[in-house]
Amino acid sequence: MRLITYRAAGASEDRLGLLDSKGEWVAPQEVLNLPYSDMNELIASMTEEERQQLSQRAEDESLFIVPADEIVLRAPIPYPKQDVICLGVNYLEHAREAARFEKDSFDIQSSYPVYFSKRVNEAAGHRQGIPAYEDIVDSLDYEAELAVIIGKDARNVREEDALDYIFGYTILNDMSARNLQTRHTQWYFGKSLDGFTPMGPAIVTKDEIMYPPKLKIQTLVNGELRQSSSTDLLIFDIGYVIHELSQGMTLKAGTIISTGTPKGVGMGFTPPRFLHKGDVIECKIEKLGTLVNQID
């Protein structure tokens, strides 16, 4: 099933719901009788029995009574409990293009992942504008990524048990200001500006996706294909990442882990092809949908 956070047209209150597989109709919270205040509470509180019941109800087409073009899709988790955990250079070819641009000596044969965090005051939703920040950013870039949502508190998880701790998956565009990354010789500030975490359009629950995910991932800018790869090319896979991070650090229910981007980001071209006002970015992941945003 596809869980969403949305607002009715003209409303200011977030609601929960289900999106149909074509992205055309919504089953609203009041019809589904969801007793949760937001997606964080749903993830942390929903029992397996309740999840199965909701999944069965998601097959009832009569519940999908609201046209999707009459609501505003928010990020599935508009206000994450904590910073997003991100993986850097987790596709081999992206590691190579990043090294060329940043003139860093990335160890593409490293035995360990590169982890960093991304501050998210409020995640951007599908079709929400992304600020250009032209006064401080001269090299705005995109990064389509598969994001994993943790479903229950995870600590000391064995790699083979990782799936038990996954709630679902969504698309995350790890927007990046390359000049700020270079200036500060680290990635936190350049990836944490307000609006730099577009996410969605929905959380697709883990039962819909074969594990480990082997999904086509693509990015188009103004209709031009820029990124095209598959999530089965991750250097460090989801099971390994959950296992390693949970050794000594509790991954709370609702934690978002963004697994890295493939080659084809703007900085990887010669010359670089960065984003500008008016550009439209489409991040696509097979079975998860398409996340569309425009630079404002």
Automatic annotation (TrEMBL):
GO molecular function: acetylpyruvate hydrolase activity; isomerase activity; metal ion binding
Record keywords: Metal-binding
Entry superkingdom: Bacteria
One Pfam match: FAA_hydrolase
InterPro entries: Fumarylacetoacetase-like_C, Fumarylacetoacetase_C_sf
Record domain Fumarylacetoacetase-like C-terminal: where: 84-295
Example GO biological process: carboxylic acid metabolic process
Similarity field: Belongs to the FAH family.
PANTHER family linked: ACYLPYRUVASE (PTHR11820), ACYLPYRUVASE FAHD1, MITOCHONDRIAL (PTHR11820:SF7)
Name listed for the protein in its UniProt record: 2-keto-4-pentenoate hydratase/2-oxohepta-3-ene-1,7-dioic acid hydratase in catechol pathway
Organism: Faecalicatena orotica
Taxonomic lineage of the native organism: Bacteria, Bacillati, Bacillota, Clostridia, Lachnospirales
